[in-house]
Amino acid sequence: MFDIDIDLIKKYDKPGPRYTSYPTAPHFHEGFTPEDYKTEIIKTNSEPNDRDLSLYFHIPFCDTLCYFCGCNMIVTRNRDRISNYVAALKKEIDLLRGLIRDDRKSVQLHWGGGTPTHLNPDEITDLISYINNKFEFKPDAEKGCEIDPRELTRAHLEALREGGFNRISMGVQDFNPKVQKAVNRIQPEGMTKQVVDWVRELQFDSINLDLIYGLPFQTTEEFAKTVDKLIELSPDRVAVFNYAHVPWMKKHMNLIKAEDLPAPEEKLEILKMTVAKLTAAGYEFIGMDHFAKPNDEMSVALREKKLYRNFQGYSTHAGTDLYGMGITSIGQLERIYVQNIKTEKEYMTALEAGNLPTTIGYMLNEDDLLRREVIMKVMCDFELDYSFFEKKYKIDFKDYFSYSINKLNDFTEDGLVMFNNSGFKVSEMGRLLIRNIAMSFDGYMERKQDTARYSRTV
Known about the structure:
- The protein is α/β, with parallel strands linked by helices.
- It has two domains: 1-23 and 366-451, Arc Repressor Mutant, subunit A; 26-324, tm_1862 like domain (pyruvate-formate lyase- activating enzyme).
- The chain has helices at residues 6-12, 34-46, 79-97, 121-134, 154-162, 177-182, 189-201, 220-233, 264-280, 297-303, 344-352, 366-381, 386-393, 397-400, 402-407, 409-413, 428-432, 434-439; strands at 53-59, 61-62, 74-75, 106-113, 137-147, 167-173, 206-213, 237-242, 284-287, 290-292, 308-310, 313-315, 321-325, 330-332, 336-340, 358-363, 383-385, 417-419, 423-426.
- α3 (79-97) packs parallel to α4 (121-134).
- The longest helix has 19 residues, at 79-97.
- 42% of the residues are buried.
- Residues 447-453 have low confidence and may be disordered.
C-alpha cells in the first residue's frame, strides 16, 4: 500500500481529459464527413493490415433516470422504439461489414449504454446472433456487457452467456439506501449479490463492479461499509469513479442538491480510504481509478507493458481498429476518430438513406500520432523510454518535448515522477494523478474553451 498525500491531490485537482483518445473529443469537427470515414475504412483493406477488430455497440435506453449519470442515455419503456433502434443498428452493421475486409477477425465486443439489458432476453439473443453472423470472433475474444441489476432477470444473463459474452460490468455506486434515494437509484444489497451469484453460476470469466465517490450524503465512515461489502463480493475488477457534478452540461444533475454533496476534504478522505481498503484486500492499483486482482488480465497486462486505452477505458487489446455503432458511439482507426449522430431520428434517417451515420471526426497529423503514443505510454505503462520514440519517430526526444519535460518539474519535486537515464517512471501515488502528468505532453491543453468539458482529475 502506498501513502496517499491529500495535500498533493488538492494541489493537482483540476479539470483534465481522461485520455481515452488523443486529441480528445472536443477537437472532433464536422469537417470530417461520412465519405472521409468510408475512405479510411477502405484504406485499411488495401494496405497490409493485421489489425484485429474491436466492436462497440451503444444501447442508450434506461428504465429510470439516475441523477448522477453522465452517459448518453434515453429513458423509455416504449418497446417499439427500442425495436426500431435495434433494426437501425442492424443496418449500420450491414453498412460497415460491407466495407471491412472479410478475413479480419474481432477480438473484442462491448455493449454499453444506457442499459444494454433494457433489451429483453429475446432481443439480446436476436442482436447477438446478428452480430455473430456478420463478424467472426477469435476463440479468445473478450465480450463484455454493462448490466443494471434493477431490471435484470437470470434469463437476461443466460441470453448473454449463450451468445458468447464472457464479461459483465455492473454499477453499485453505493450500498447506502440514503445515498441511493438521493440519486434515484434504489438497488438493495441483496439484489446486487443475487446478480453476482448468477454471473458466477453461469461461469462468466470476469465481473467488474463500479463505485462512485462524491455522491450526496456520503461520508468516509459510511462509504467504508460499502467498500467492505464490495470486497466480500470479490469482483475481479473494481472501478472507483469520481462524481463530476456538471449540471450546466447534464440538466438532470440539478436534481442533486449541491449542498448535499460531501465537502472536498471529505471527498478526498473517501478516496484515500477506498484505495487503502482495496489494496489491503489484495487488489492491484492499475492506475487512475481502476483496480484488479493480481491474476486478472488487466493486472497481467500492466506487468507485461501491454495495457492499452481507448474509449472503453483501460483495455488489454491494443492495436485494434475500433468500430462504434449506435447513436453517439465513437470509432477509432489508426489515423482517425469518428463519432456517430447523437439523436435517434437523424441516426435512423441516415441509415435509411444508406449512409454511414457519421456526424464529426478527426484526422490525426504527424504530431498528433507522436503525442498520442507518448500519452498512452504514460497512461498505461506509467513510465517513458525516450529511445523508443527517438528510433520510431526520428526525433531528439528531449529537444522535441523540452516544454513538456520542463512541466514535469513540479511532479518530480513532489515525488510523483522519477527521472532516469532513459526517461522517467511514475510513482504509485503518481498513478492516481496520471491524467495530470499526461497533460504535460498534450499539445492542445492551452485551449481554454475545453476546460469546462473535462471532469476533475481526482
